[in-house]
Amino acid sequence: MRSYKAVLTVAATVLASAAVALPVTTAAPAQASPPTPGPIVNLWNWNWNPVARECADVLGPAGYAAVQVSPPGDSMSKGGSVWWDVYQPARYTLNSKFGDENAFRNMLAAPLPEGRGFLAQAA
Questions:
Q1: 67 Cβ partners below 8 Å, 6+ apart?
Q2: What is the reported pTM?
Q3: Which of 10, 64, 110, 123 would staple 59 via disulfide (CB 3.0–4.6 Å)?
Q4: Closest to 47 measured CA to CA, from 95, 10, 7
Q5: pLDDT tens digits, residue range 18-43?
Q6: How confident is the model over 61-72, as pLDDT tens digits?
Q7: d(CA 109, CA 104)
Q8: Which residues make beta-bridge pairs with 120?
Q9: Are 63 and 38 spatial neighbours (Cβ–Cβ below 8 Å)?
Q10: On the CB side of 98, how many CA atoms lie within 13 Å of its CA?
Q11: pLDDT band (50, 70, 90) for residue 56
Q12: Contact (CB, 8 A) for 87 and 71
């Protein structure tokens, strides 16, 4: 029994000395980018043209940080009554129940304060 305790004592001493000898890194931790200042508005299920007008007339002048919109791709059910139908892609084109590709591009060009933008999910 005593030899067992001696082996454990030696093993613990070796492990403790190895832990002390490990190098310590002094590099600064990675910094996350700062959050976008200001509120984010969610214009879910809005067509692209009204979103562009709202950005130009209300949201841009009010200093909103970003505008979140529905997924822009074409979905299985155009004009459906359930919220999740926009997550059922039919084709990967920017022609959806919210407008066509041209209206989407015009919406993205809507005036928002410098450094602000749009958030859209893709399915």
A1: 40, 41, 43, 51, 55, 59, 112, 117, 118, 119
A2: 0.64
A3: 64
A4: 95
A5: 444 445 455 566 666 655 577 889 99
A6: 888 888 999 888
A7: 9
A8: 69
A9: yes
A10: 27
A11: confident
A12: yes
Q: Which of 62, 52, 57 is nearest to 118 (CA)?
A: 52
The amino acid sitting at 95 is N
Rounded to an integer, what distance in angstroms lies between the CA atom of residue 91 and that of residue 99? 14
Contact 110, 60 (CB under 8 A): yes
Amino acid at 52: A
CA angle 111, 66, 52 (to 5 degrees): 40
Q: How many residues are recorded in the chain?
A: 123
Quick one: which of 6, 82, 98, 97 has its CA closest to 48? 98
List the structure tokens of 65: 């940080």
